[in-house]
Amino acid sequence: MMPKGRLFIVSGPSGVGKSTLINRFLGEDDRSTFSISCTTRPKRPHEIEGKDYHFIDNDQFRDLVGWDHFLEWEEVHGYFYGTPAHEILHNLERGVDVVLDIDVKGALTIRQKCPRAYLIFIEPPSVDDLIRRLSLRGEQEIAKRMQRVREEMSKKDLFDCAIINDTLRSAYETFKSVISEARRQEHGKNNC
Questions:
Q1: What pLDDT digit, counting tens, does each position of 85-96 carry?
Q2: Neighbours of 31 (CB within 10 A)
């Protein structure tokens, strides 16, 4: 059976508002589910195991890599992140759209395996605004992260669309319409 759901990959620099847009969308959309990634980084105070991430240790992660469990995986800022393949493919086969929140490199890796995946790049209104957002979140090593931002921003043209998150209302309306249009274009086609 060919997958009938649509794979949406949302990416962009850290702190740009991806999670806010995705969470609001999933709260209103009954055709989609969120793909929960695995990570070895410590859980943040507001995060919930099995909702935000599957928090595992380095040995467990290496075992899963060895078992070819991930569509993609990589090390970011000293921690491992991976996108489990089975749950995504299972949902797509059932006709459920799957939304991923992963970094730019991971998005482009999955695009190679799933050419019809729809890639959405979320960008800040300005780099200064992003620095302010990261500082408010208490992000450490701003200079190192800003180098990564520049690298990620240079790849936005490889995505199907880019949305500037200047105001939540405007960005969210654009986000919803982009997904709605992508669904119309690819209804019933194999997306992986």
A1: 999 999 999 999
A2: 11
Q: Is the pLDDT reported for residue 74 higher than 50?
A: yes
What residue has token string 């569509």?
71
100 domain residue, yes or no: yes
φ/ψ (deg, to 5) at 10: -105, 125
Which DSSP helix (H) or strand (E) runs through 103? none
Identify the CATH number of the domain in which residue 73 sits: 3.40.50.300
| CA atoms of 43 and 36, how far apart (whole Å) | 14
Q: What is the pLDDT of residue 3?
A: 47
Give the C-alpha separation, 84 to 110, whole Å. Answer: 11
Type of residue at 14 = S
How many domains is the chain partitioned into structurally? 1
**Rounded to whole angstroms, how far apart are CA atoms 188 and 3?**
8
Give the C-alpha distances (Å, rounded to integers) separating 191 from 112, 115, 159: 12, 7, 16
Q: Which residues pair with 47 in a beta bridge?
A: none
